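Open question from group meeting: does this chain pack into something compact, or does most of it stay loose? Before anyone orders reagents, we agreed to write out a predicted structure and look at it together. Recording both the input and the output here so the notebook holds the full record.
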Amino acid sequence: MKQLREVIGYLLGGLLFVLLMPTVMWLASGMPPLVHIGALRASLTGLLMLGGLTLSVYTIVYMRRRGKGNPMDAFGHEVAPRTQHLMTDGPYRINRNPMLTGTLLYLAGVVVWLWTWPALVVWVLFFVVMLLQVLSEERRLRRDFGDEYAAYCRHTRRF
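Structure tokens returned:
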């Protein structure tokens, strides 16, 4: 049952971030054609989307293998098993939220692809909601890891 819940959590996260958010951005943009965007925009789009997705997936795999879980809570509700210890190495040396950083880069690629104000507005709104989520997670991490987390915060940026 625990494993099924974990798989469902990862699938729902993937659907939300990889498919649903770009679809919302596309719909908000008036459903523009998705082809013929030019070589420069196509290259930047590909770089952002592939780089962001790679960072997010790498972080998930790293967290699962090294941390034996995942830090993801959805506003106080555990979505996947929490890590057993504070992760400060690997992609967590870059910043405290590399999964979300990857997702934001991926969705920035969608903004470049669509190249519309509504897509940018959706990205900004998503960022604000995720920032609130991160602040909620940080409160839990402070409770779970205390001084260790405080020290980590002093030396590592949020994004």
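Observations to bring back to the group:
The longest strand covers residues 73-74.
The chain has a mean pLDDT of 89.
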